[in-house]
Design a protein that fits this description.
heterodimer; A: about 80 residues; mainly alpha; Non-ribosomal Peptide Synthetase Peptidyl Carrier Protein, Chain A; 4 helices; about 0% strand; globular; B: about 500 residues; alpha/beta; Rossmann fold; GMP Synthetase, Chain A, domain 3; 2 domains; 5-stranded mixed sheet
Chain lengths: ~80, ~500
């Protein structure tokens, strides 16, 4: 059961790692936003697992290290 | 003392068919690893009597082979983090004046802007036949480049005798066997990685580099999947395990010893590990790169862990052969940690001024000895030594000397496991890592007032769900400040 309806990938990532959703741009990704580093990426993946049932593996960790991919997921499943 | 390369050769001789490195792309037996080592040694030997080898390889078997290959060639290596910005890699290569840079296409593709003056050796290209026997050793075994306060990387020069002394201790203390399965979590450019690499490959064990994204994000699952028996990392990794609810008895079942180093180990960390495995042995070790990985030990069990904690866990006592003194403090039980012994670095690469400042002769009752002044402040209580903080974290507030590390410890005692305190414009700022959007600030202030002088209580608190970390998984204070708009 989804705990919250996210309107965008930025909102989800901000919820996972902090910061304002507005501080995330379409090209934001792991290592290119001051708050999005390898440690905080764990929070992003855990939230994706919890909210969308994403299986955490090398492929998804890589795929969802970009906001564009998370945005897409939120649009399709959100 | 036994030479590390001799230990490595003994491990190869004793179990040539046993697994040496279990990497994501292949598993190498000791015999296979050794063949690479000897071929690389021959390639490096073409670059001088004591070649300087820059290792620009991802964490994994190729990098380990390059280290031993350099030693066999009688050279000195400098490992580089391949994830570092291109200009930092170039700066280190220039500073080191590498005779040869061993790398691979995958890494070169990632940093296309990298301009390097030294000849490149592609580890996946044609290598010469194996070198028949090891050449005479260079005085330095490696130079580890760490961040310097001036922005220019600082090269710490480690001699062969220093690493031999350290590995002797690893053998005495860890009692490694060929059945051990070692984690290899720290990047090869972080000196803590020397423990896993030499500890394992000199004792015939199997080394498991944690270099996939999944393993780095979910280390406890990697322990479980690979049935690892020995673990070493910075304590922050425990936070990752607990955050993902993975510090469990099932995941840690194979562990016989977990060793932590590099940043303060906290009681909360121990609680999490012992809750999962009450029979686990946990070690806290301390040591700057300048003293070869680590030089103290505090073994911990579920029964005695509480007595070894103040703000953080005791760093224990000096290992045999090394000596720690507290100097320049108000009493013999408080002061800067000064380290003496055979594990001390030779100094800083090309930096005699900095070397002279940090490595000084000290008159001790037994005579004059060379000591390394760490800049770390510590306190001794009931025969336990506690790290208080960096001396450059000492500030004066209204003329009163205050240790920012002490305020951080007070915050930890209030339940905030990860807290950083910074002085800006004569004001103390407290950064707290918490998933909550708000805290009861007045209650926190009241609790802090019980242990801190009024001037030491932070004027402002900044809450963050996750602190930024650097390549070595330590909190990146510079990046931390930038996250609060208008602060710097």
């Amino acid at each position: 059961m989804r705990s919250k309806n996210y309107l965008s990938g930025a909102e989800l990532v901000a919820s996972a790692i902090g910061g304002e959703p507005g501080s995330f741009q379409a090209d934001s990704e792991l290592g290119r936003h001051p708050k999005w580093d390898s440690f905080s990426h764990l929070n992003v993946m855990l939230l994706l697992e919890q909210e969308f049932g994403i299986v955490i593996d090398d492929a998804t960790i890589d795929k969802y290290s970009r906001l564009s991919a998370i945005d897409e997921l939120v649009k399709v499943k959100g | 003392m036994t030479d590390v390369f001799e230990r490595y050769l003994q491990a190869v001789d004793r179990g040539p068919g046993r697994p040496a490195v279990c990497d994501h792309d292949r598993t190498l037996s000791y015999e296979e690893l050794d063949r690479y080592v000897a071929r690389l040694a021959n390639a490096f030997a073409h670059h001088g009597e004591h070649p300087r080898v820059l290792i620009l390889l991802d964490q994994g078997w190729r990098a380990y082979a390059a280290k031993f290959g350099t030693i066999m060639a009688g050279g000195t290596y400098a490992p580089v983090n391949t994830q570092a910005p291109a200009n930092r890699i170039a700066m280190i290569a220039d500073q080191f004046r590498a005779d040869v840079i061993v790398t691979q296409q995958r890494v070169r593709d990632r940093v296309p802007d990298l301009k390097l003056a030294a000849p490149l050796l592609d580890i996946e290209g044609d290598l010469p036949p194996p070198l028949a026997q090891a050449r005479p050793a260079a005085k330095l075994i490696y130079v580890m480049f760490t961040s310097g306060s001036t922005g220019v990387p600082k090269g710490v020069m480690i001699g062969r005798g220093a690493i031999n002394h350290y590995v002797d201790w690893v053998f005495d203390a860890f009692r490694p066997t060929p059945d051990d399965r070692w984690s290899q979590h720290p990047n090869i450019a972080f000196d803590l990685s020397q423990l896993d690499i030499y500890g394992c490959l000199c004792s015939g064990g199997a080394l498991y580099p944690l270099n996939s994204r999944h393993d780095r994000l979910m280390p406890a699952r990697a322990i479980q999947r690979n049935r690892l028996t020995l673990w070493s990392s910075v304590p922050s990794i425990i936070n990752m395990m607990t955050q993902a609810d993975q510090a469990t008895a099932e995941n840690l079942a194979s562990m016989r010893l977990m060793n932590f180093i590099g940043e303060p180990l906290l009681y909360e960390h121990l609680e999490a590990l012992f809750a999962a495995r009450p029979d686990l042995t946990v070690w806290n070790t301390y040591g700057p790169t300048e003293a070869t990985v680590s030089c103290t030990l505090r073994p911990l069990t579920a029964r005695d862990s509480r007595t070894a904690c103040r703000g953080s866990v005791s760093i224990g006592k000096a290992i045999p052969g090394m000596r720690l003194e507290l100097m320049g403090g108000p009493s013999a039980d408080e002061g800067e940690i000064v380290i003496f012994g055979p594990q001390l670095a030779e100094g800083y690469w090309d930096n005699p001024e900095q070397t002279k400042k940090a490595f000084r002769s000290v008159a001790l009752p037994e005579g004059t000895m060379r000591g390394y002044f760490t800049g770390d402040w510590a306190r001794r209580e009931q025969d336990e030594m506690y790290f208080v903080g960096r001396m450059d974290n000492q500030v004066k507030i209204h003329g009163i000397r205050t240790e920012l590390g002490e305020i951080e410890q007070a915050l930890r005692r209030c339940g905030f496991t990860d807290a950083v305190v910074v002085m800006l414009d004569r004001e103390v700022h407290g950064f707290i890592e918490t998933a909550d959007n708000a805290i009861d600030e007045s209650a926190l202030r009241a609790r802090l007032a019980q242990v801190l002088m009024p001037q030491a209580i932070p004027k402002m608190f900044h809450l963050m769900p996750a602190f930024p970390r650097n390549d070595n998984d330590k909190i990146d204070r510079g990046a931390l400040l930038k996250q609060v708009p208008g602060l710097v």
